[in-house]
Amino acid sequence: MVQRGFLAVAMVGLLSLGVGCAAESGGEGEEEPAESALALSALNNLTLNGTRLNGTQLNGVRFNGVRFNGVRFNGVSLSATTLVGTRATDGRRFQGPDFIGVDIDAVLDDLSTLTVRITDIVERGGLSYYTVKYNVGGGLWANICGEGLEAIPVRGTWDAATGDHSDDGSSFTFGCQGAAIGKCAEWGYNGWAPRAECNGTVCESRDLSYLHQACVRLVRADYCGDGVPHTRPGTAIDVWDALGIQTETEGSGMGLEAEWTVDGAACVRHTRWKGLGTSNPDRDYIMAHCPERWAGNDTRCGGGSSTFHKANGFATPLEQRRLLRNASFATNVSPL
After folding, report:
1. pTM for this one?
2. Which residues are 66's β-sheet partners?
3. First to last CA, the chain
4. Residue 4 near residue 234 (C-beta atoms within 8 A)
5. Per-residue tens of pLDDT for the chain, all 336 residues
6. For 306, how many CA atoms within 13 A lie in the half-sphere containing its CB?
7. What is the maximum alpha-carbon separation in the chain?
């Protein structure tokens, strides 16, 4: 499926991406928010890609930091993308829209804390979308994702520098629309909903959180899996996966760019962008930092022997398997 965009927040993080659509904005490294999944269907699944991990500098939200009018909640957790918990004073159970108005302790990238407030929650397409704001003073509140944007809560947090995901059960991320983490959730890579993969009569349950992690790397063109993006806002790409959640777009005119694992690109046929003339800074970066991932014209990258295919990858652990592929135009030129 042709895609674009990326970003997310853990009430912690800076990352999000997914099968969503984001249009290019004027700022460097910025992009406009992805449309909702329903709106995207009207755009023939054309989405834009960008570099942002998430829409804010939040680096995680603490489950144990939820309160309303000063009263703490106990046992707060995520059921899919819905917050659930009990009120400490009387044990009353809360979930979904009951969390409108609660304050939550969020952790910033510099490890300082910030109180954020959920001001609205809506359900669309099987996902919960949260409007989350913080107090900027003078009685004014600002949206953590940008005005008019919503966030999808996703388990775990992402390292803003390396792009690495971790989940110790204590925190979650608010993945903003238009950024990698949120987009990948909208694209269907949902760790809370396992998917069966069958090889003949043998079936295994696949944890989609691995596909979500690979998707976040893909959206940002984080080839080396070191957190360094190699894309530009508004870049069109086609994304598909080994489980058929997203499928390849026939006749897109794009060429295979790379195969992706949770650790970045397993192999790269061409970079999403190149420089003027024969220059290619992104290829040079790969050759300097992860040269084993550069495939160039080697057709084994994207070929039939890849673990992307069920015949070869069914028994491969998901943390090692080539889970996603993407195509892009090899003619994108970015002036140096």
Report:
1. 0.84
2. 104
3. 30
4. yes
5. 765 432 222 222 222 222 222 222 222 333 322 222 222 222 223 334 566 677 666 668 888 899 998 899 999 999 999 999 999 999 999 999 999 999 999 887 777 888 999 999 999 999 999 999 999 889 899 999 989 999 999 999 998 889 999 998 899 999 999 889 999 999 999 989 899 999 999 999 999 999 999 999 999 999 999 999 999 888 999 999 999 999 999 999 999 999 999 999 999 999 999 988 889 999 999 999 999 999 999 999 999 999 999 999 999 999 999 999 999 998 888 765
6. 23
7. 69
What is the DSSP annotation of 5-60? -EE--SSS-SBEEBS-B--B-SSTT-BPPPBPHHHHHTTTT--EE-S-B-SSSEEE
Burial class of residue 144 in the structure, from the number of CB atoms within 10 Å of its CB (0-12 exposed, 13-18 middle, 19+ buried) = buried
Residues ≥6 apart with Cβ < 8 Å to 20 = 3, 4, 5, 34, 35, 37, 40, 47, 177, 178, 182, 183, 186, 187
Q: Is 310 helix (H, G, I), strand (E, B) or coil?
A: helix
From residue 47, how far is each of 87, 103, 237 by CA, in Å? 41, 33, 7
Residues near 318 by beta carbon (within 8 Å), at least 6 away in sequence: 206, 207, 210, 211, 262
At residue 282, the 3 state secondary structure works out as: helix
Please provide residue 250's backbone torsions phi and psi, each rounded to the nearest 5 degrees. Answer: -75, 140
Q: Are 204 and 314 in contact (CB under 8 A)?
A: yes
Q: Which residues pair with 238 in a beta bridge?
A: 2, 327
d(CA 306, CA 284): 25
- The 10 Å Cβ neighbour count of residue 137 is 7
